[in-house]
Amino acid sequence: MRSVISRGLSWLAALLIGGVYGVAATIAHSYTLGPVPVGMILGAIACAALLIALRTLTGDRWAALAAGFGMMALILLISQRGPGGSVVVPNTPLGNIWMYVAAGIVVLVVMWPDLSKVRRLSASAGAAGDRHSRAS
To answer: I need a labelling partner for 69 at 20 to 30 A (CA). Which of 17, 52, 101, 117 fits?
Structure first.
């Protein structure tokens, strides 16, 4: 029971942290230095780093999915017209690209295969091969 509660709380924390990263990156995405979209590049790196860290450190794709859901939910929320008529993500090519980049990062990190099982299988197969060659 304790494991279920701790997993649920970790997913909730990932959801909230993902939302914070999504908002920060969305606010920064429109910063450009000449023709280079520096804000979008740094925001994408930060969001990808968070998702990769969650996936790697927890060993749980659901934590990365929760963070990605938090990111995308708040990106979509603040992209709508606010009560005062302001829009954080205007309908420009840069704003549209940011929406697809953020969604693509979430999908890529969450859907990436778990290679730890492959490494364990190859290590055990290598150890079995060593034992077989020493026996003959």
So the answer is: 117
Q: Which two tokens stand for residue 19?
A: 């939302």
Q: What is the pLDDT of residues 81-129, one digit of tens each?
A: 888 888 878 888 999 999 999 999 999 999 998 877 777 777 777 666 6
Q: Which of 14, 73, 13, 75 is nearest to 44 (CA)?
A: 75
CA distances (Å), 24 to each of 28, 41, 69, 108, 117, in order?
6, 13, 15, 20, 35
Report residue 54 as tokens.
Answer: 């969650």
Compute the distance between CA of residue 129 and CA of residue 123 in angstroms, rounded to an integer.
10
Q: Which amino acid is at 65?
A: L
**For the chain, which residues make up each domain, given as ranges?**
2-135
Decide if 46 contacts 101 (C-beta within 8 A): no
Q: H helices within the chain, ranges in order?
A: 2-28, 38-58, 61-78, 93-111, 116-135
